[in-house]
């Protein structure tokens, strides 16, 4: 039996004749009729893990960076942190708890807003308890009536927020923006459209649906050979405009997998980077499990930086996640494990989980981009300093 999401896609194709891959991806992930991220039935932890759900130290180290940002902004009485795509709230909880024990004055100024399609996912149990990981409460008691509150908001963007002083952050968000797929055929840029062959979803190539597609590709200055296929994320510009409109003064922190355009569109990636995940299994075919699997692409950080410059968001840091976390004191926290009242087994389990955050074969090769707006003082962000191991 076909899913409601498949039926929505099929109905649209029958009406339009074909749809762009971006339209297909938008419906699959965000349709109110049961898209992967909009469905209350989706437990993301059953499909893939992320840095925040791997170990709470990830949030603790980001808290250190946020505290420095607060100081750079001359310690405003209200420092907003807006996390977009907060899912189950794991990162939010790790950050606010760390801020509370790290600096009570900063914690008092912190106003943490967690935005997601389904904020009720905050009721999901912590992934750390079942895994036997170091949970902050065991070492640093935390009481909800003392520490900062997490304000959960159901939204699909930043339109409701303005004049923010602080930091907008997101982890693994941009990779889920709907993308247009393209191919080089007969030396020309062709767009991949989705249509029907009987009851099966299939692809056809034709002239691009928007002049922005060849314009963006040509602006990258790349030499793409016959048969080359990849993706282009046109949603980046609208998103950057939202960021700039929302942020009066402060920072944007983007954490995701991806690379610069020259690496992302290299000959080695001649079939693109799009991949799907269903119950921790990578799948190359996006037309399977429609609405029931994640669809994701690596992020073009060159476009993020260049578009940011157009909207007043200046790049002030770009590095790999492992370097970012190491500069914030990752290895000192790793050493702390030996001083905690944990069993040998739990100490080792924590060590393994923490190391996934900096392992290049796990999350360590993710990229971290910091952008700033309307900050008059000179500064050097902690996470982008070159600290030796």
The total of beta strands comes to 17
Instruction: Give, in spatial order, the strands making up the sheet with the most strands.
Output: 4-3-2-5-10-17-16
The geometry reads as globular
N-to-C CA distance: 54 Å
Q: What low-confidence regions span 5 or more consecutive residues with pLDDT below 50?
A: 119-146
Structural class: alpha/beta
Total helices: the number is 15
CATH class of the domain at 44-178 and 234-257 and 298-384: Alpha Beta
Round the mean pLDDT to the nearest integer and report it: 88
The CATH topology of the domain at 44-178 and 234-257 and 298-384 turns out to be Rossmann fold
% residues in beta strands:
15-25%
Q: Based on the coordinates given, report the CATH architecture of the domain at 44-178 and 234-257 and 298-384.
A: 3-Layer(aba) Sandwich
Which percent range fits the helix content?
25-40%
């Amino acid at each position: 039996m076909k899913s409601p999401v498949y039926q929505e896609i099929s109905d649209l194709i029958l009406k339009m004749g074909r749809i762009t891959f971006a339209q297909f991806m938008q419906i699959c992930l965000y349709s109110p009729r049961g898209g992967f991220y909009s469905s209350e039935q989706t437990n993301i932890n059953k499909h893939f893990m992320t840095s925040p759900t791997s170990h709470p130290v990830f949030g603790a180290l980001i808290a250190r960076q946020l505290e420095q940002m607060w100081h750079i902004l001359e310690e405003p009485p209200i420092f907003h942190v807006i996390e977009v795509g907060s899912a189950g709230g794991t990162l939010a909880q790790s950050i606010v708890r760390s801020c509370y024990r790290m600096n009570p004055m900063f914690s008092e100024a912190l106003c943490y807003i967690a935005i997601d399609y389904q904020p009720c996912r905050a009721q999901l149990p912590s992934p750390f308890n079942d895994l036997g990981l170091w949970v902050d409460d065991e070492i640093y008691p935390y009481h909800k009536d003392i520490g900062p509150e997490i304000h959960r908001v159901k939204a699909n963007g930043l339109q409701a927020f303005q004049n923010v002083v602080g930091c907008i952050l997101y982890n693994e968000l941009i990779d889920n923006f709907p993308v247009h797929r393209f191919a080089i055929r007969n030396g020309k840029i062709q767009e991949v459209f989705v249509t029907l062959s009987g009851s099966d979803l299939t692809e056809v190539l034709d002239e691009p649906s928007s002049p922005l597609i060849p314009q963006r590709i040509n602006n990258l200055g790349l030499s793409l050979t016959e048969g080359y296929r990849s993706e282009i994320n046109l949603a980046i510009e609208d998103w950057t405009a939202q960021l700039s409109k929302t942020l009066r003064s402060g920072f944007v922190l983007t954490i995701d997998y991806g690379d610069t355009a020259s690496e992302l569109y290299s000959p080695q990636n001649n079939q693109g980077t799009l991949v799907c995940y269903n119950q921790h299994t990578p799948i190359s075919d996006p037309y399977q499990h429609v609405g029931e699997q994640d669809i994701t692409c690596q992020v073009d950080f060159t476009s993020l930086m260049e578009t940011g410059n157009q909207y007043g968001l200046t790049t002030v840091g770009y590095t790999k996640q492992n370097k970012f976390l190491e500069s914030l004191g990752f290895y000192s926290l790793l050493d702390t494990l030996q001083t905690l009242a944990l069993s040998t087994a739990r100490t080792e389990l924590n060590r393994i989980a923490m190391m996934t955050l900096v392992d290049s074969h796990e999350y360590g090769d993710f990229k971290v981009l910091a952008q700033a707006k309307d900050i008059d003082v000179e500064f050097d962000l902690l996470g982008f300093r070159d600290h030796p191991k």
